[in-house]
Amino acid sequence: MYFRRFLLGGLIASSTGIYAAEFNGQLVNHAQKPIINAQILVRGESLQTRSDEQGNFTLDLPEGEYTLDIKAGSQGHFHQTIRISDDQQRVIVHIDENHDKKIVITANPLEHTRLDMATPAVVLSGDELVLKRSANLGEMLQLQPGMSVSSFGPAVSRPVIRGLSGARVLMTVNQMTLQDASTTSADHDVSVEPLLADQIEVLKGPATLLYGSGAIGGVVNVTDKKINPQGSTGLTGGAELRLGDSTTEERSMVATLNGGNAGFAWHLDAFSTEYSDAKIPGHAESKYLLEAEGHSEEEEEHEGTLENSASDSNGGSLGTTWNDDWGYFGLSVNRINKTYGVPGHAEHDEDPVPAPAPGEEHEEGVAIDLEQTRFDIQSELYQPFQSIDRWFFGASHTDYQHVELEGEEIGTLFENKASEFRSYVTHKPADGWEGIIGAQYSNRDFSALGDEAFVPPSKTQVSSLFWVEEKSFDQLKIELGIRAESQRTQVEGFETRTKTGVSFSSGFVYTLSSGDKLAVNFAHAERHPSVEEGYSFGEHAATQTFEIGNPNLRKETSNNLDVSYRFETEHLTGEINGYWNQFDGFIYGAYEDNIGAVLDLHGQIVFIDPDLPVVHYTQQDAAIKGVEIQVKTPLISEQGYGLNLGVVADFIEAELDSGAYLPRIPPLKYGLTLSYDYDALLADLSWIHYDDQRKTSSNELPTDGFNLLELELAYRMTSADSDILWFLRGKNLLDEEARDHSSFLKDLAPRAGRSWTAGIRYQF
Fold first, then answer.
1. CA gap 70, 26 in Å, rounded
2. Judgement on whether residues 55 and 124 belong to the same structural domain of the protein
3. What is the sign of the dihedral through the CA atoms of 600, 604, 605 and 608?
4. Which of 135, 329, 521, 647 could form a disulfide with 379 if both were Cys (CB 3.0 to 4.6 A apart)?
């Protein structure tokens, strides 16, 4: 249960002198302060307005039921269904525990809440987002059902959705692709700063219709307010400070400032984060790795500290937005600098054979120094034509580079220059059908330069068209969509190739009762091989492998069925998801025996280090299936305070057609949560058990289970002009040795031990 939650509740009054068609309301936040300049649209109607300086608004609506789409800037974006009758003339926004069910997921241009989507989704925002902030996105999301993390130490991780990550999970910022190098290798960081996020959204399952083949496993969308469609009146902003104990020695600061007037808004932000080498319980190397190498724990020196895991980052953003009743137009620029260590000598992909123990080779650790500058343009026109409700246009350009440092020497320089254009229109209802028609184009110029560059320079252009429609029949809403995509790849030293693919989906959401919904969705998705999968060749210093691509890989096809049951009663709320995903030509890195020589991609013999594991990309049919459960029940529910008990669980099973298990598949996890909310105080206690993972791929080492106990405390102090949130978070309070099976470094880099982080967030 979290503080910043909303409900549009009706205040019924006699309608003396008021026309039944005129509907008045007021928007206020949790402190009963008016929400100014919020955009209010009536879904399915050609009506919109804005709240004034007192939060008041007026709509001319006849008697009936309507859904209001309220975009309140930093206060949130949410839906509320209201019923207007002759004796009802006023509506007020106030705090309610069901805010999370009203939040609009902006990654879906049709702007649904998670309850109304045919596929499962997760959203983090408000105080929940503040309390769960960590060094990276993967760690923030990993406790959600169906989510785990692929990490390369504490500083670097990518979210894993239902066992899929890398090139199968698309990272976006405000619906635009995050064009970094994180899909090239797991040790490359996701270049987005969690401290600046206003909301994090996850679409679980194929989202290729809206975002292309890179979203065959799902989408993680981060939203911020660099471009603010709702504008700004006066000066607002805030600051946040976070301090960690000796386990991580976290020092994080972030500040934001917003200003403007009617028709114009500007935004500034800056951040700085620093982490030391993490303290760990026990040894960095797992007992299975030590046994495989013939070592004992007494021989190892890496105990109590995860060497080379420190990180240091800073950056900032500038944004401007012009807005009016016609729509908005915004520009922004963002800069990120980060340096981080890569602990241990990592395995890569399905590496079954442990790499040499630290201290035997490569005594100096590998570090990565990255820089990214990103430019964004976004615009939206409201009702530009009679049949069009909204017309969105977005463009981004990313200039990214990082160097892999081996001690003081530069090993490899990675550069990625990428541009993306995305546009779609949302049309007004036609015979009951509502939907979007759009186009997307991206251009990526990638290079890896240096003695150990393992991916050749390449240029990739992707063009696509997509169309999604939905229609409601009383309790039933159906969704249909299709996307056609063409990918042109130019790799230095190889012929240019152009490949096409078609993805489609169909699904429905059936409202069984006022609080119960059944959602079913089938998606056929196609993914073209990435440049890394097709053309890699060479030693990768950070992962300590020799990688060999396969130019003859065909496209990967997924047929995914999702079934979700969402329910809400007085005593029980929750969601149960089941899915089955059949892959035709699943692409993965198969490990081969190293005989000291390999054939390059042109058929020539190349002699290599005989101690390096050899990774050769291939493909085979595979199936991934699983179940996700999240249930909550109130133990105490009184005015002013409440106590809720929650249950979470998820299970994944993934096999190749040969019967072999896929590597790095997360184990069964389950747990309990306890949430207490009293006036300005919030307390959340969670216990999550991760089971042993013994279903491993060929020569993959098993992983022991562990228990995570976490505590979150927050206290809010509110005045007429400001809002202060004090918070404290404790992680791994049992101080257990915790290794994520989905991590490339699970046998070399466990999670940090028991740690505490305290902080304060100030907003005005």
1. 12
2. no
3. negative
4. 329
| Nearest to 599, CA basis, from 620, 613, 614, 611 | 614
Q: Which two tokens stand for residue 701?
A: 């080492």
Phi, psi of 126 (to 5 degrees): 60, -140
**Token pair belonging to 322:** 């012009």
**CB-based contact 527:503 (threshold 8 Å):** no
User: Domain holding 587: CATH number?
Assistant: 2.40.170.20
DSSP state of 288: H
**Residues 477-526: pLDDT tens digits?**
999 999 999 999 999 989 999 999 999 999 999 999 878 999 999 999 99
Residue 277 tokens read as 């080498």
Q: How many domains does the chain have?
A: 2
Residues 367, 344: Cα–Cα separation, whole Å: 11
Both 91 and 126 in one domain: the answer is no
149 and 266 belong to one structural domain: yes
Per the structure, the complete domain to which residue 123 belongs is given by: 114-763
SS3 content of the chain, % helix, strand, coil (to 5): 5, 55, 35
Strands (E), 657-752: 669-678, 681-690, 706-718, 723-731
**Does residue 146 share a domain with residue 40?**
no
Q: Which residues contact 678 (CB under 8 A, 6 or more apart)?
A: 640, 641, 642
Q: What is the pLDDT of residues 86-121, one digit of tens each?
A: 666 666 765 444 455 677 788 888 888 888 899 999
| Of 703, 662, 700, residue with least CA distance to 163 | 662
Phi, psi torsion values for 751, nearest 5 degrees: -65, 160
What is the pTM for the complete model shown?
0.87
Residue 682 and residue 267 in contact, taking contact as beta carbons nearer than 8 Å:
no
Structure tokens at 556: 């990967």
